[in-house]
Every structure is written in structure tokens, then in C-alpha cells.
Amino acid sequence: MEDTVSKECPKYKLPSILTIEGVDGFAQAIKGSFLSQESDMQIDASAVENITTPAIQLIVAIKKSLLANNHNLIIVNSSDEFKAATGRLGLADLLFEGKV
């Protein structure tokens, strides 16, 4: 289940490969551009072909941070690999339905 997205919401498209080597760059992009805004945030996961645990952990941390500030991380267009990776880690409910 994927949430609806407001048009004002900052958007970030995940790359096709997001492994431990790319987590720092992803974190910097999110921190600098998106988390400074006081609103929900959207991540498009349609291109994801390979994602590792550290990247998913970062996405979970972002979601928890936004929820703590009465905002949400909305994941849209999840690729099959993104869904499978979050499912393997038992994080699909948290990421897609906001159950903390």
C-alpha cells in the first residue's frame, strides 16, 4: 500500500543501485535538500534494482525522524526489488504503512 502524495512535498528519486558505498551521498542529499523543509517527503523507488541494508536503515531513520516531527516519508512506485529487500528485513509495514 502506497500513500497519496501532496504536490508541495519534496521529492527524491532513488538510484538503481544504492549500496553501502552510496549511502553517504544519499544521506547528504537528503539532509541538505529535504530534511531542512518542514513537510512530508516523497521517495520514488521505481528505479531500484539493488539496495542493501545500510541504505534501507537510513530510509527507516528518515521515516522515524519525519514521523517524530508530525510528517511522513511517502514511498511511491516501489520496484519489486525494493519491496523484496524491505520485506526480507521485516520493514515493509514500517515503510509502507507507517507502523512504528
Folded structure, characterized:
This protein has 100 residues and is an alpha/beta fold. It has a single domain, classed as STAS domain (Transcription Regulator spoIIAA), CATH 3.30.750. Helix content is 46%, strand content 15%. The protein has a three-stranded parallel β-sheet with strand order 1-3-5. The relative contact order is 0.22.
CATH class designation: Alpha Beta
CATH architecture term: 2-Layer Sandwich
Say how many strands there are: 5
Q: Please tell me how large the radius of gyration is.
A: 12 Å
Main structural class = alpha/beta
Q: Mind telling me the CATH superfamily name?
A: STAS domain
Number of H- or I-type helical stretches: 4
CATH structural fold name = Transcription Regulator spoIIAA
* Dominant shape: globular
Distance between the amino and carboxyl termini: 16 Å
**How large a portion of the residues is in β-strands, by DSSP E?**
15-25%
Largest sheet: 3 strands, parallel
Instruction: Give the uncertain stretches in residue-range form.
Output: 1-6
Question: What portion of residues is helical?
Answer: 40-55%
N to C succession of SSEs: EEHEEHEHH
Number of domains: 1
Quaternary organisation = single chain
Residue-averaged pLDDT: 85
Strand order, largest beta sheet: 1-3-5
